[in-house]
Design a protein that fits this description.
The chain is of the alpha+beta class. The chain contains five helices and twelve strands. It is globular and about 65 Å long. Residues 201-227 have low confidence and may be disordered.
Length: 227
């Protein structure tokens, strides 16, 4: 969705499904819910939200001023609704070290492939064939990485000086507003002491070494309160 910077915006949601509610969330903005399927809400009763819960058969209308330029995700907060049919009713292998598992099982099922340690996040990039009556794992390349969420998910693009509502491309962030990898010089300048094994990341570290995948952290064993 494309919006001109500074314009008044109104988005109407209608849940025509017969089974599920949808808490639709918009990043970057707060808005007032101004209408329901019952009609206009009095201004004194309008709630300021970032999520509009739209149940079966309901409509919700919310208003805001598009005063923050950028690319803002808008999606359902029900995780499996965002991920289409591939994210629902299946056990996942998130965080599990499955080294060698596929190779062993492929002796019995040649095409076997275990869900990745990041869940179904990589399926959209693989372009796997699907049945005719199935929805694909939708997604697309974003400005920083592949956007895996492809179900109830879109992007609100707010720009100034637009002459049409065609896709303006990805937002060009002002210099210094996007995090980058710190150089050795940056770390040394700021007096940060790096551990000896800093080259190892969570992605390659064996799961057994992660206290959350094995035994609880010591502070929990000691009965200390944590937030």
């Amino acid at each position: 969705m494309v919006a001109i910077l500074g314009y008044n915006m109104r988005i109407r949601l209608a849940n025509l499904g017969a089974m599920s509610h949808h808490p639709i969330h918009l990043h970057g903005y707060q808005f007032k819910i101004t209408e329901t399927d019952g009609g206009q809400i009095q201004e004194s009763a309008q709630q300021v939200e970032t999520t509009a819960l739209t149940a079966v058969g309901q409509t919700r209308t919310f208003d805001f001023v598009a005063d923050e330029p950028g690319d803002w995700a808008m999606h359902c907060h029900m995780t499996h609704h965002v991920m289409t049919q591939m994210g629902d009713k299946f056990p996942n292998m998130i965080g599990v070290d499955k080294t060698g598992l596929d190779r062993k099982l492929q002796k019995f099922i040649a095409a076997y492939m275990t869900m990745g340690t990041a869940g179904m996040a990589d399926m959209g990039e693989m372009g796997m064939p699907i049945p005719k009556n199935s929805a694909p794992m939708l997604g697309g390349q974003g400005p920083f990485d592949y956007i895996t969420m492809g179900g109830l998910f879109t992007v609100l693009k707010v720009r100034e000086n637009l002459t049409s509502y065609e896709d303006p491309g990805w937002y060009q962030h002002p210099s210094g507003t996007v995090a980058t990898i710190a150089t050795d010089e940056d770390i040394k300048r700021d007096g940060i002491q790096m551990p000896p094994d800093s080259g190892k990341t969570a992605a390659v570290r064996p799961s057994a070494n992660d206290p959350w995948c094995g035994s609880p952290p010591p502070r929990l064993l000691a009965g200390n309160r944590t937030s």
